[in-house]
Amino acid sequence: MQMTTIKINQTNEELHKFFMNSDIKRWKEEIEIINVEMIFYKNLLNAHLKEHASWGEINYESLFQGIADVQYYNERFQKGLLDFNNRLSGMAECDDLQCENHFLNDHTNIKKSIESHFSTYKAFKKTLFSYLKIRYNY
Fold this sequence. Notes:
The chain is an all-alpha fold. Helices cover 80% and strands 0% of the residues. The chain has helices spanning 12-52, 60-88, 97-136. Helix 1 packs antiparallel against helix 2, helix 1 runs parallel beside helix 3 (97-136) and helix 2 (60-88) runs antiparallel to helix 3 (97-136). The termini are far apart.
């Protein structure tokens, strides 16, 4: 059973699980949104190419490669989150602090990596928006 709120009498382990599960849920949702956005941007760029039949000033190849890179890393993080979420059930078996720290350290490492991925994605998204601004005179 997954908790949805923090209760006064919860143990440290329950609190850690609560926050880890909250992070995992948020990260999964963010990855799903990014996947949908990448499909949208790829289709938009393809439509623009067909419409204008010219590469013009914008380097489409680098934009398509950026989309492919985001999709690749998104897939890796999606699989990694699924794996970590499955392993997280083993935290209930922990009977010492060292075991619990192992899961907390894994969570911290995943958090650093995925937050870096989201930051990189946002920077790439700015590049896409700059392209749209130039192309559609916004």
